[in-house]
Amino acid sequence: MDMLYISDLYKRFSDKKVLNGLNLSVPEHSIFGFIGKNGAGKTTTMKMVLGLLKADAGEIIVNGEKVVYGQTTTNRYIGYLPDVPEFYPFMTAAEYLHFCGEITGMKRTENEERCKDLLELVGLGNETHHIKGFSRGMKQRLGIAQALLNRPKLLICDEPTSALDPVGRKEILDILLAIREQTTVLFSTHILSDVERICTDVAFLNNGVVGVQGKLSDIKTRYRSEEYQLETGNDTDMLILQQTFPNMQQIGRNQLVFCEGDYTVFDILRFIAGKHIALLKLERAEPTLESLFMEVVEK
Ligand SMILES: Nc1ncnc2c1ncn2[C@@H]1O[C@H](COP(=O)(O)OP(=O)(O)OP(=O)(O)O)[C@@H](O)[C@H]1O
Fold first, then answer.
1. Which of 182, 247, 269, 298 is the most exposed place for a label (fewest CB within 10 A)?
2. Which residues form the ABC transporter domain (predicted)?
């Protein structure tokens, strides 16, 4: 089942068209990377999923229920982490999380247990300082704990790693990976290496529509590269290959890349065998998410 389903979503701000018939299917228990350049419309889409912004046209379904603008009933399924989460700076993480639990009407013992578990999950179990001294990464982690408080079926994170250093990013990504069994995660980003690291599914948002979406592994197979990389054991062998096959390009020490359109693998292998060239590696180049994204954006 799709935890989130969006069909033909349109949105414009005065004369600026932002969403132009967006379709999105987020499968249950996926970690879904919603990828788009700055200003592509990711936050706009998320605000509409939360019922905070009115769509011009289209339908949004969360856990089988239609989202209605201005109503918050479907938000009982959703936990939301905004790009810059705000807290009461004079509280500790535990005080803040307990306070949120109280507001949502959680019973005292349940609240205490839940807060303890969540603070441990996000690595703030022993943190006693006030939030005002927290780093950005700590605030994001507390934000995730807050968003998970009511055991949402869908966790939406708006660019959760954008402002973080590599250590902070890894901590957030590890948490998102760890909660996959409990919830479905939709996160927007333009950091493609983060997506490669943890996402099961992706969608590329461009010009107001989703250009490509699906399982990351399927997409990589579908857009399989026609390039091969090879590595020789020494400089001389590399030069022989380069002179014989001038369209081969050097990409590193003794490393060459060639396109199937220029030479067949069979021809290359036959030549290598005939000349007794020391071959250390020959493999089809994996398409990177970046090259796929550029292909979608440039279409
Ligand atoms: N309330 C608004 N009024 C007018 N224009 C808006 C409004 N909200 C968003 N926009 C415009 O809509 C476009 C999409 O914005 P949005 O914040 O959804 O993009 P985004 O993909 O989340 O980008 P970023 O990665 O920079 O956060 C931008 O050009 C933005 O300026």
1. 298
2. 4-232
**CB distance 39 to ligand 1 below 6 Å:** yes
**Residue 208 Cβ contacting ligand 1 at under 6 Å:** no
Q: State the angle between helix axes of 136-148 and 166-178 in degrees (0 to 180), rounded to the nearest 10.
A: 10
Q: Which of 117-126, 162-171, 219-228 has the highest mean predicted lDDT (pLDDT)?
A: 117-126
Name the residue of 18, 22, 81, 195 to mutate for ligand 1: max ligand atoms within 8 A of Cβ.
18
User: Is the CB–ligand 1 distance for residue 36 below 6 Å?
Assistant: yes
Q: Is 189 in the pocket of ligand 1 (CB under 6 A)?
A: no
Taking the domains of the chain in order of start, what are their residue ranges? 2-219, 227-298
Q: Which two tokens stand for residue 71?
A: 């109503």
Quick: pLDDT tens for 41-69. 999 999 999 999 999 999 999 999 999 99
CATH 2.70.70.10 fits 2-219, yes or no: no
Q: Residue 105 — pLDDT band, cuts 50, 70, 90?
A: confident
Count how many Cα atoms sit within 13 Å of the Cα of residue 180 in the half-sphere of its side chain.
Answer: 15
DSSP letters spanning 58-101 = EEEEETTEE--TT--GGGGGEEEE-SS----TTSBHHHHHHHHH
The ipTM assigned to this model is 0.95
